[in-house]
Amino acid sequence: MLLSIFDIVSLLCFIACWSGYTWFARKKAKTTDCIARSLHQHRIHWMTELMQRDIRVGDAALLANLERNIAFFASTTLIILAGVLTLFAQVEQLENIILSLPFALNANHFTIQIKLSLLAFIFVLAFFQFTWSMRQYGFVNVMVGAAPLDLSGDKAHLQSYAVEMAVVQDQAAHSYNYGLRSYYFSLAAICWFFHPLLFITTSMFVAYTLYRREFKSKAVRAITRGNAYLKQEQNMK
């Protein structure tokens, strides 16, 4: 076999870690406080407050800053992708480098091309996610520009409009998060060049790290407590 059983098992483990964590995080976020769930509540509050502001220069600056961060990753992804594609023409040199490393296994032209293809696929996926996120932030800008002024804050249809703006922004943030997640798992994919066991270990470690940061970090607890304070402030109005 051109790919060993160990390589196939490690690749399946990588796919299971990535797709499994994505499914788990999406389901868990519906019932558990996490970064995605808590920030969505903050976005609703932000868009609701925005409807009551006549001057929205600060809001526009915040949205522009978010877009700049995503644009940076989108352009960086293209550079990385170009570098990965260039390595396809240097497979022989790359094979010699890998064979010179201790504990490296099964380094031949075919396996190296498969591993490079995996990296290329990951960064193509990341690029699509980042650019879609940028487009959705553009949609948010249009909706903010169209938002009428509601000083009273008691018009139900405008409150619903604020929620819809928050939903579009939330979807843009999800795409950004998926793009960043691709970067995390690309680090695990690099380990496949050295050893399948290292590939399996880093895949699990990345999934665990993402879980800790998105569900158990201090930032999550602080953002969740912030939601409670905002609700308290709204009830006092």
Describe the structure.
81% of the residues lie in helices and 0% in strands. With 237 residues, the protein is mainly α. It has one domain (37-236). The protein is elongated and about 70 Å long.
Concise description?
InterPro entries: DUF599. It is built from 8 helices and no strands.
Regions with little confidence, pLDDT below 50 for 5+ residues: none
By DSSP (H or I, 4+ residues per run), the number of helices equals 8
Q: What's the domain count?
A: 1
Portion in strands: under 5%
Q: What class would the helix/strand composition place it in? A: mainly alpha
- Bin the helical content: over 70%
Number of strand elements: 0
- SSE pattern, N- to C-terminal: HHHHHHHH
Distance between the termini: 70 Å
Subunit arrangement of the protein: single chain
- What is the residue-mean pLDDT, rounded to a whole number? 90
Give the overall shape: elongated
Radius of gyration in whole Å, from Cα? Answer: 22 Å
Features:
237 residues; mainly alpha; 8 helices; 81% helix; transmembrane; DUF599; membrane; transmembrane helix
